[in-house]
Amino acid sequence: MEEEGVNLEGSLPVPSVQELVRERQPDALPPRYVRDDVAPADHLPESSQGLPCIDLGKLTDPSSRSTELRNLHSACHQWGLFLLVNHQVSDEGMGVTQENVRGFFELPYHEKQKSAQRPGSLEGYGQAFVTSHEQKLDWNDMIFLKCLPSHARNLDLWPQNPPEFRIALKNYSEDLRKAAVAVVKYIGMALGINEGELELLMNSFREGRYEVRMNYYPQCPEPERAMGLSPHSDNSGITMLMECGDMPGLQVLSRDGRWVTVPPIPGSIVVNLGQIMEVYSNGTYRAPDHRAVVNKEREGVHSDLLLSQPVSSSWTFSTAPYCHWTRPALPNPFTL
Fold first, then answer.
1. What are residue 211's DSSP bridge partners?
2. Is 254 contained in some domain?
3. In 3D, which of 238, 92, 94 has the Cα closest to residue 173?
4. Is the pLDDT of residue 31 over 90?
5. Within a domain: residue 326?
């Protein structure tokens, strides 16, 4: 049960971590950022060689589709996360987006503050899910924006600097929506749902809400005691993540309890299944816990595009298309 008075739709204002590092250059973590409440960050992480890589080109090719569908099914079941290649999002589009995301965080603080979160809202520049003045904090700054459908955009919060930021984000979100629809099509095929349900699934991703969260992780004086992003699973349909650099930071929790680093492979997109897809598959596929760790020598930046909510439907835990007599429906239904 949620605590009385806690607003999960907004976030209390907190100091910018980037400005804290820039102005004070601390030798030790400020107390609110010391995360003894979670497992310490592993900076000698488990090998990432076992993480699956899915080739969208092989899924679209009838001659290789069946084999790649089996690989996709295994990836979603075992990990709930995979690297996607040949995703048809252009290198140029990804590069322009990376450049503008980094450019935003390089702006002077007063310029970034023009996009600051408003009271009672998560959208904008700040930090997410800060609900008390005693709460431990993540070592990051972020900007969270609604992208699609276009009428949901709050352009008052969309940065006007860098000058190409808005058009880059508009194009990138539309390109990733196309990739997301293709990915969920093949996820549905891997589950074996019928053509009618498959079309409903794809339409829900064509017409659903897409939001972007761009995270900046400054250099950290004690990275083994901090968290860039606390462990969590996403309450989205799927999340598509792009690293804006070559500094590994994302880690995923394996089924046997190991934190495994997700390598930043140039040109790839990380696809992470959210709780909605776990429900849709009736637990056959998983929404994995994941987190971001930080670094003492270099900053990290990444951009997540989340399908936060498919278009309204009547699917619940007990009526999702993949629920059938061989697998009892998951408890605690909620409407998708």
1. 146, 306
2. yes
3. 94
4. yes
5. no
CA distances for 202 relative to 140, 143, 177, angstroms? 34, 28, 11
Dihedral pair phi/psi, residue 65, rounded to 5°: -65, -45
**What does the alpha-carbon distance between residue 33 and residue 324 come to, in Å, rounded to a whole number?**
46
Candidates 311, 270, 315, 335; CA nearest to 148 is 311
Q: What pairing do the DSSP bridges indicate for beta strands 300-309 and 290-292? A: unpaired
314 pLDDT more than 60:
no
N- to C-terminal Cα distance for the chain? 20
- Asked if residue 57 has pLDDT above 90, the reply is yes
- pLDDT per residue as tens digits for the range 85-118: 999 898 888 889 999 999 999 999 999 999 999 9
Q: Are 210 and 145 in contact (CB under 8 A)?
A: no
Q: What is the mean pLDDT of the chain?
A: 86
CA 330 to the chain's CA centroid = 24
Place of tokens 């598959």: 281
How does pLDDT run across 229-243, given as a tens digit for each residue? 999 999 889 999 987
Listed in sequence order, the DSSP H helices in the chain are: 17-24, 56-60, 65-78, 91-105, 109-112, 165-191, 195-207, 275-280
The pLDDT score that the predictor gives to residue 49 is 61
Q: Say if 222 falls within a structural domain.
A: yes
CATH number at residue 224: 2.60.120.330
- Cα(84)–Cα(53) distance, integer angstroms: 6
Handedness of CA 334, 242, 229, 159 (dihedral sign): negative
Taking only the tens place, the pLDDT of each residue in 279-309 is 999 999 999 999 999 988 888 887 777 775 5
Least confident of 3-7, 49-53, 203-207: 3-7
Q: What is the C-alpha to C-alpha distance for residues 194 and 29, in angstroms, rounded to an integer?
A: 53
336 is written with which tokens? 């998708």
Name the band, by pLDDT with cuts 50, 70 and 90, for residue 319: very low
Split into its structural domains, the chain has a count of 1
Does residue 251 lie in a domain region?
yes
Helix H or strand E encompassing 210: strand 209-217
Q: Which domain holds residue 81?
A: 30-39+48-283+302-309
